[in-house]
Design brief:
14% strand; three-stranded antiparallel β-sheet; alpha+beta
Length: 390
C-alpha cells in the first residue's frame, strides 16, 4: 500500500467536501481515507485505528507518516464518514477510479451470499379508524388550518372538521365493542375524509399536500370497501402494500416465515463467503418475498463496488422462476433450492390454470370453470375431488 497510497489518496480528489473559506484547517482527507481503508482491512474500532496510526510502524509506512505522528481524536473518523455519506457514493469512490483497466484494483467476478433481516419500524401499528383520523389531522395541518388567520369565515362543515380532527386528537366516544356503532363511526370517518380531500384540492399544487392526500386516499382504498347498500365497511383481507402507521408511513406488515411476523422493514444483506464485509441495503418494505430484492441487490453491488457478480447463493425464497430467468439474462448463476410442495399431487403447480378463460384443469384432466359472484357478496369456491386425489 505504501507504493500506491500517494496515488490512491489525494486531497484534491476530495476537496469538494470542504469549504476552504470557512472553519479551521481540517485533517488531510488523504490520511483519513487511508486510515479508513486500513481500519477496514484490520477490522478495528476508531480508537484502535488512531492508536495504530501512532504506534504501528506498518500503518505509518503505508501512509508515509513519521514515527512520532501525534494522531487525532477518534471522532474525526466518524465525522469524515458522515461527510462522505452526505456527499454520496460518487465522492467516496472517486479515489479508487484508478482501479479501472490498467489501474491498481481490477474488477473481479465474485460469488455472493444474500438474505434479508428484519428491523422494527419507528411508528405504532394503528387500526383503520386511527389511520383515517390521524391522516386527516395531518392533512389539515399541512393545509394551514392550525393558523388562526386561516380559520376566519369558514363554512360550518369545515369548522366541524377542524374541531373534530385538528383541535383534538382522540378517538370518538362510542362503545367500540358494538359492531353497529363501529360501522356508523366508519361511515362518519369516510365521509369526513372525502370532505378533507375536497379542501385539499384547493392546494393541489403543493407537493406536501399531494403526498399526504395520496396517503389518505390509499388508506381509504386499501382498508375500506362498500357493502351491498353502498355503505363503507372494513375490507376483507389485507392489501399487499397496506399502510399500518401514520407516524412511519413506510413500515409494513412483514414476515420471514409463517411463524416469524413483524411490523417494520426488511434489510437486504449481501456478503462474500468467508468474508467479514457485507453490503446492506437500507430498509425496504417488510411485505413481499425476500426474492424480489435479488436483482436490485446484484445491480447495486456491481454499481457501487465495481465487481462483476457471477454467482448468487440464496435460500428458497430467491429460487423463483422469474429470478432464475433474470439471473440468466444477467449472466449470473443462481444457486437456490427449488421449493418443494408438501403434497405434489394437489399443489398449485400440478394444475393447469388459465386466467384468461377462468378455468383450471386438475392432474386427472378434469376441467372446471370459475363461478365468480359480485365482489359485494363474496366469491364461491368450487370443490371437486378427482380420482387419486384422496
Amino acid at each position: 500500500m505504501a507504493t500506491v497510497s500517494n496515488v490512491l489518496f489525494r486531497d484534491d480528489d476530495l476537496k469538494e467536501l470542504y469549504d476552504p473559506g470557512n472553519g479551521r484547517p481540517s485533517l488531510p482527507p488523504s490520511i483519513l481515507s487511508g486510515v479508513l481503508l486500513l481500519q477496514f482491512h484490520d477490522d478495528v474500532s476508531d480508537e484502535e485505528a488512531v492508536q495504530r496510526l501512532q504506534f504501528d510502524l506498518r500503518w505509518q509506512v503505508a501512509l508515509h507518516l513519521p514515527t512520532d505522528y501525534p494522531g487525532f481524536d477518534p471522532t474525526s473518523l466518524g465525522n469524515f464518514r458522515a461527510r462522505l455519506a452526505e456527499h454520496g457514493q460518487e465522492a467516496t469512490l472517486r479515489p479508487f477510479r484508478r482501479g479501472g483497466p490498467g489501474g491498481w484494483f481490477h474488477p473481479r467476478p465474485v460469488t455472493l451470499l444474500t438474505d434479508t433481516t428484519r428491523t422494527t419500524g419507528a411508528g405504532a401499528v394503528q387500526d383503520t379508524y386511527t389511520l383515517l383520523r390521524k391522516c386527516m389531522r395531518k392533512l389539515l395541518k399541512q393545509l394551514g388550518y392550525a393558523a388562526a388567520g386561516k380559520r376566519r369565515g369558514l363554512a360550518p362543515g369545515t369548522e366541524r372538521l377542524l374541531a373534530t380532527y385538528l383541535d383534538q386528537d382522540r378517538k370518538a366516544k362510542i362503545d367500540w365493542s358494538d359492531p353497529h356503532q363501529r360501522a356508523e363511526q366508519l361511515k362518519v370517518l369516510f365521509q369526513d375524509a372525502e370532505a378533507v380531500l375536497d379542501l385539499a384540492a384547493e392546494q393541489a399544487d403543493d407537493g406536501a399536500v399531494q403526498a399526504i392526500g395520496w396517503l389518505l386516499v390509499k388508506i381509504m382504498g386499501d382498508d375500506i370497501e362498500q357493502d351491498e347498500h353502498g355503505n363503507p365497511q372494513i375490507a376483507q383481507g389485507t392489501a399487499p402494500d397496506r399502510i399500518i402507521s401514520i407516524t412511519d408511513p413506510e413500515m409494513r406488515h412483514g414476515h420471514k416465515s409463517q411463524a416469524q411476523r413483524f411490523n417494520g422493514f426488511k434489510v437486504s444483506v449481501t456478503t462474500e463467503p468467508n468474508q467479514r464485509d457485507d453490503r446492506g441495503r437500507p430498509g425496504h418494505h417488510g411485505g413481499g418475498s425476500d426474492g424480489q430484492e435479488l436483482m436490485p441487490t446484484i445491480e447495486r453491488v456491481e454499481q457501487h463496488t465495481g465487481v462483476t457478480v457471477e454467482q448468487m447463493l440464496g435460500d428458497g425464497a430467491y429460487g423463483s422462476g422469474a429470478n432464475r430467468a433474470a439471473c440468466a439474462a444477467h449472466n449470473v448463476d443462481l444457486l437456490a433450492p427449488v421449493r418443494q410442495p408438501a403434497d405434489p399431487v394437489v399443489d398449485k403447480s400440478a394444475f393447469q390454470i388459465d386466467l384468461a378463460q377462468q378455468t383450471a384443469t386438475c392432474p386427472q384432466g378434469t376441467r372446471l370453470s370459475a363461478n365468480l359472484a359480485p365482489a359485494s357478496t363474496g366469491t364461491h369456491t368450487a370443490i371437486h375431488l378427482c380420482a387419486g386425489d384422496v
